[in-house]
């Protein structure tokens, strides 16, 4: 995660309430997934996800976990790429079409779940009964919901 910006959100009394962190995340996984069928092998060797990630740390607390919760989202669907290797009857097969197809599906799912206007809340303060409502009801500034 390469941080590009960190902001503070203030209450009316001037105290800091939340922190907003924004940055470029590049997740590059060296995976080893293999699917075997009769006379066929397909292996995933490399998966990467790259996008602009925002994290809101909500409601500062004077005790651990120090925040009521956090909200995260991507501004736009993250770019996904992957590398596949395949063999049929022992001969190497070009799987670029399958790479593009799977990367598109993964990108679409990440976009549907984690891109604006959708956000993902994570509750950190399990002691406070109202904490879930303080975290899950938030919408980032500038996002219009109907």
Description:
The chain has about 150 residues and is an alpha+beta fold. The longest helix has 19 residues. The radius of gyration is 20 Å and the shape is elongated. The model has no long low-confidence stretch (mean pLDDT about 85).
Radius of gyration: 20 Å
Any idea what the shape is?
A: elongated
Sheet with the most strands, sense and barrel status? 8 strands, antiparallel
Number of strands: 8
List unreliable stretches of 5+ residues.
none
Give the helix tally: 2
Amount of beta strand: over 45%
Class based on secondary structure composition and strand pairing: alpha+beta
Tell me the distance between the termini. 32 Å
Q: What is the average of the pLDDT values? A: 84
Instruction: Spell out the helices and strands N to C.
Output: EEEEEEEHEH
Percent range of helical residues: 10-25%
Features:
146 residues, alpha+beta, eight-stranded antiparallel sheet, 2 helices
Task: Give a short overview.
17% of the residues lie in helices and 51% in strands.
Task: Please describe the topology of this protein.
Layout: E1 2-10, E2 16-29, E3 33-37, E4 40-60, E5 67-74, E6 79-88, E7 91-93, H1 96-114, E8 120-123, H2 131-136
Antiparallel strand pairs: 1-2, 2-4, 3-4, 4-5, 4-6, 5-8, 6-7
């Amino acid at each position: 995660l390469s941080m590009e910006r960190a902001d503070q959100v203030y209450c009316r009394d001037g105290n800091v309430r939340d922190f907003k962190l924004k940055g470029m995340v590049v997740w590059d996984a060296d995976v080893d997934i293999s699917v075997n069928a009769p006379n066929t092998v397909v292996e995933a060797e490399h998966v990467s996800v790259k996008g602009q990630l925002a994290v809101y740390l909500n409601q500062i607390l004077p005790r651990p976990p120090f925040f009521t919760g956090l909200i995260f989202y991507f501004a736009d669907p993250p770019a996904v790429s992957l590398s596949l290797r395949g063999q049929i009857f022992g001969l190497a097969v070009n799987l670029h079409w399958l790479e593009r197809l799977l990367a598109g599906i993964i990108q679409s799912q990440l976009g549907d779940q984690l891109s604006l206007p959708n956000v993902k809340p994570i509750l950190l303060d399990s002691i406070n009964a109202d904490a879930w409502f303080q975290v899950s009801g938030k919408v980032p500034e500038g996002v219009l919901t109907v």
